[in-house]
Design a protein that fits this description.
Blueprint (H helix, E strand, L loop, with lengths): L1 H20 L2 H19 L6 H49 L5 H6 L7 H16 L12 H12 L1 H14 L1 H5 L5 E5 L7 H8 L5 E2 L27 E2 L7 E2 L9 H12 L4 E3 L5 H15 L3 E5 L7 H10 L4 E7 L2 H21 L1 H9 L11 E3 L15 H19 L5 E5 H6 L1 H11 L28 H13 L3
Parallel strand pairs: 1-6, 1-7, 2-6, 5-8, 7-9
Antiparallel strand pairs: 3-4
Helix pairs in contact: 1-3, 1-5, 2-3, 2-6, 6-7, 6-14, 13-14, 13-15, 15-18
């Protein structure tokens, strides 16, 4: 019995060592990711047919190469495992019988293979490995299979539209009901407090929003959450390392994939994101998308790209008799530019190490910073590219000025648009939220929001940024700010 246990332990440990040395796990991972990226590019929502064909050829070679390499390693592993069992059988036979008699039979059909001592010895190292706590990965916590699911159902246009068509069929009754009572959008330049503002507004019982529970099936907003465990999962700090925690129930900026797949070529250019219209057919699909998320409640979304289509959406909503609000948070230029620069450098470094981090941001339509950074132009679609180096703060100051200059000129003083000062929000969160809710006609709702003081690291002083143009623009926005 002890001999069989030791033999099983020997075979298992040796197999694990050969498995890891042969790169089986890494090989399987490379193959899955090669297939994933091939699927993603085959249905890319923005690239044209010629660009897709150009990108697919090297990806196809990667799929074939990683597959045959994995197959070869599996054959080598199979031969090695057979040899290990034969060696174990030889050792057990000699220890038990002490003679070479019947050795061929023992090697070909070891009788102890189906016995519990050998099985227990084989499982012991595997159980030890499974019990080891894995070190969490902040940039990319997804397994290869989870990454494949994101590439297919979030990034592939054919798959995304197909499951949205299926969702509309499954939720026919819900689509027959009334639409959202109102729509609230939080949209500004990144790093202006948009996420924390949305999290506060999401506490209102009438608000409904997409959350991480919808990932990666964003296009099945009503059906998919029913398949996700309701068990509460401990929150963790997001990649930005700014103290904001999130879990499966956290509302998040996840509506942009809709626009990416239905209107991506209208507003995504090589270096910029530009203002675009919303044709009637796309608006109808989007109205269904919102209804599947919010029903007859208030639809809440944080989307930094919303200003690119806000004018068109407000016009469509007004014509349909709907109520729509757009909140535009802004922050002092030098503080926001410094935060954008830090995120640009950190995310860029992570994207160089892991291609999925780069693709993931693209699939969510996030181009605020990182290797695929694009300047957002809510004003003139033909505006010039800001001058300067993206790895230096002055470049981000220029981006700040161009973005908010266009936003103020286009939406300042317009009904349904509310400029929201971050510095005042930090100094008086409760008062700022109350002023905003009152301005949107949600009087008396502020008491339903649990407000906490901002951490010292998030506080910025209201003084000069050192750039006269940015300071003047900041003062202009403060004069009309809702808070």
């Amino acid at each position: 019995m002890i001999t069989a246990f030791i033999a099983g332990f020997f075979v298992s440990v040796s197999a694990i060592l050969i498995f890891s040395r042969a790169g089986m796990v890494a090989g399987a991972r490379r193959w899955i990711l090669a297939v994933s990226r091939f699927v993603y590019l085959a249905g890319h929502p923005v690239l044209d047919d010629d660009q897709i064909a150009k990108e697919l050829m090297p990806r196809f070679r990667a799929v074939l190469g990683s597959f045959f390499l994995l197959l070869f390693r599996m054959l080598v592993f199979g031969v090695a495992l057979t040899a290990l069992v034969a060696v174990a059988a030889l050792a057990v036979h000699w220890i038990r019988d002490g003679s070479p008699g019947g050795i061929r039979t023992e090697i070909l059909f070891p009788p102890f293979l189906t016995g519990w001592p050998f099985m227990a010895g084989s499982l012991a190292p595997l159980l030890f490995l499974l019990a080891r706590r894995k070190k969490p990965v902040r940039q990319n916590p997804y397994s290869p299979v989870e990454q494949f699911m994101h590439y297919l159902f979030l990034g592939n246009k054919v798959a995304a539209k197909s499951i949205f068509r299926l969702e509309r069929m499954l939720q026919r009754r819900k689509l027959r009901g009334s639409g959202p009572a109102a729509s609230i959008y939080v949209s500004g330049m990144a790093r202006a407090g948009t996420t924390v503002l949305m999290q506060y507004l999401a506490q209102l019982p009438e608000c409904r929003s997409l959350s991480y529970r919808n990932m990666p099936f964003v296009f099945m907003p009503s059906t998919w959450p029913g398949f996700v465990s309701k068990k509460k999962v401990a929150g963790r700090e997001r990649f930005h390392a700014d103290g904001i925690m999130h879990d499966l129930n956290s509302p998040e900026a996840l509506e942009e994939p809709f626009w990416l797949h239905y209107a991506g070529r209208r507003y995504i250019r090589d270096k910029s994101l530009v203002r675009h219209d919303v044709p009637g057919k796309i608006y109808s699909r989007y109205a269904e998308f919102r209804r599947l998320i919010a029903g007859s409640h208030v639809y809440l979304a944080k989307n930094n790209n919303h200003l690119l289509r806000a004018g068109a959406l407000h016009e469509k909503e007004a014509a349909a008799g709907g109520i729509i609000h757009t909140v535009i948070p802004f922050r002092r230029a030098d503080a926001q530019a410094a935060s954008l620069l830090r995120m640009h450098l950190e995310l860029g470094a992570a994207q160089r190490q892991d291609e999925f981090v780069l693709d993931y941001m693209d699939m969510l339509g996030h181009h605020e910073f990182g290797l695929h950074r694009k300047v957002s132009l809510p004003g003139d679609p033909d505006a010039e590219w800001p001058a300067g180096n993206p790895e230096e703060k002055p470049f981000w100051m220029s981006c700040w000025h161009d973005f908010y200059r266009a936003a103020l000129d286009r939406f300042g003083g317009t009904a349904g648009f509310y400029f929201f000062c971050y510095e005042r929000f930090v100094e008086n969160p409760a008062g700022s939220l109350e002023a905003l809710l009152n301005g949107m006609g949600l009087t008396g709702r502020a008491g339903q929001i649990s407000v906490r003081p901002f951490q010292p690291a998030t506080r910025t002083l209201d003084d000069s940024s050192g750039d006269a143009g940015c300071d003047a623009l900041y003062d202009e926005m403060k004069k009309i700010a809702i808070n």
